[in-house]
TrEMBL record:
This is Phosphoglycerate mutase. It comes from the Eukaryota. InterPro entries: His_Pase_superF_clade-1 (IPR013078), His_PPase_superfam (IPR029033), PGM-Related (IPR052765). CDD domains: HP_PGM_like.
Length: 191
């Protein structure tokens, strides 16, 4: 591929209302109206960047299976510009547990800061290290597909995922240490 682009999902209803997770499963949380606009604008921005190369746009999208990652961005592209759109379970959000008590989750996130953001495992959920393990599997498969010529020359791979998953992708890809990872924070929505 010509490039690999990582995009954090646009603003979701969970980003503006943490109490939503008390009754809505995380994979079902949709974008807000602002989020839809952000996602479409991110798609247009990506399209302009790809077309600025002077080559025809040829993109392959990998998305988290979470609803907020599958909404909005792909609509910027004509069907003939898309080599494929594949939902990839390994790109999902860090598991914070099932239905979440917002007050309890706030306490756990403070505890995570004391314990260490990478190794802290949420009760009934995952640690950053757990996400690292599944991202390792994803990257191994991605490299195998690249080496096998699945995408062809000059295409753009787009990963629409979550903040932590994107950072851990970069950690694996660039062989960052845990300390390097801890120096980086989530990008804004739709960036």
């Amino acid at each position: 591929p010509r490039r690999i682009v990582l995009v954090r999902h646009a603003q979701s209803k969970g980003n503006v209302d943490p109490f939503l997770y008390e009754h809505t499963p995380d994979p079902s949380v949709p974008l807000t109206a602002t989020g839809w606009q952000q996602a479409v604008e991110a798609g247009e921005k990506l399209k302009a960047a790809v077309e600025a190369d002077g080559c025809p746009a040829r993109l392959f999208f990998y998305t988290s299976p979470y609803l907020r990652c599958k909404q909005g961005m792909v609509q910027a592209f004509a069907p003939e510009q898309l080599l494929g759109v594949q939902e990839e379970v390994q790109l999902r959000e860090q598991d914070f547990g099932n239905f979440q008590d917002a007050q309890g989750k706030r306490r756990e996130k403070l505890e995570r800061l004391r314990f260490g953001r990478f190794f802290y495992r949420f009760p009934h959920g995952e640690s950053g290290a757990d996400v690292y393990d599944r991202m390792t599997l994803f990257e191994d498969h991605l490299v195998r597909d690249i080496n096998a010529g699945r995408f062809g020359q000059g295409c753009t791979l787009v990963l629409v995922t979550h903040g932590l998953a994107a950072r851990i992708f970069l950690q694996r890809w660039f062989h960052w240490t845990v300390d390097d990872f801890l120096a980086v924070y989530n990008p804004p929505n739709a960036e």
